[in-house]
Write a structure and sequence with these properties.
heterodimer; B: mainly beta; five-stranded antiparallel beta sheet; 0% helix
Amino acid sequence: KAGVTQTPRYLIKTRGQQVTLSCSPISGHRSVSWYQQTPGQGLQFLFEYFSETQRNKGNFPGRFSGRQFSNSRSEMNVSTLELGDSALYLCASSLESGPSSGNTIYFGEGSWLTVV
Amino acid sequence: GEDVEQSLFLSVREGDSSVINCTYTDSSSTYLYWYKQEPGAGLQLLTYIFSNMDMKQDQRLTVLLNKKDKHLSLRIADTQTGDSAIYFCAESSFSGYSTLTFGKGTMLLVSP
C-alpha cells in the first residue's frame, strides 16, 4: 500500500512568487492535513480537509490556502512568498476526521521550500 | 490553549533503555502520538495511545500515560544507533480530530 506522496520534494522560489504543493493521501483516506515545519516555530498546523471541505484552519495569513479534490488529493498554495515561508511542508492523511478507535495519522516525506 | 512540552535532548548508550517525556495541557485530548523524524525525512508514526488507556506496548516501545498529571512517556528498550533521531509528542483534541499539536521534539543520540 503506497504511503502519503508529496510533490515536489524540493523547490526554490523567489520572493513575491507563488507556489503550489501537492499531496496524494493513502488510498481510502479521506482526511488530509497540512503542517509547516521550521527550526524556530517547530511543527504548526495549517489546515485540514475532509471530503473536499476545509474542516479546520490554523493561525496563518490568507496567503496560505488549500483545497481537496474528489479523489481526496490535496493541494496547498502560498502566494506572494516571503523569506519566512522557507520551511518543510508536511502533508498528513487519515481515514476519517473524527474520534474513532485508532485514528492513525500518517505523514509524507514533505516538500522542502526555499524562498530566496 | 493547547501546549505540548518536551525536553530537547537525550543521550544514551547502545543497549540501554531510553525514556522520552512529554507534558500536555489540553484536558480534552483524545489521542496522543509519538512520531520519529530522521534527518531530511518526514514524520514516521511510531505509536499512539487513546486517552482512556494507561499503557500501550508495541515491541520495543512502551507508552505510559498519566492523565491526571497530563504526562506521557515513550520508553525504547534496547536502544540502537538507528534509533538516533528527533522524537515528537503530539496530541489531538476532541475539537480537531485530525489536527495535531506538536511538542518541539526531543533529539535522541545513541552512542555505541
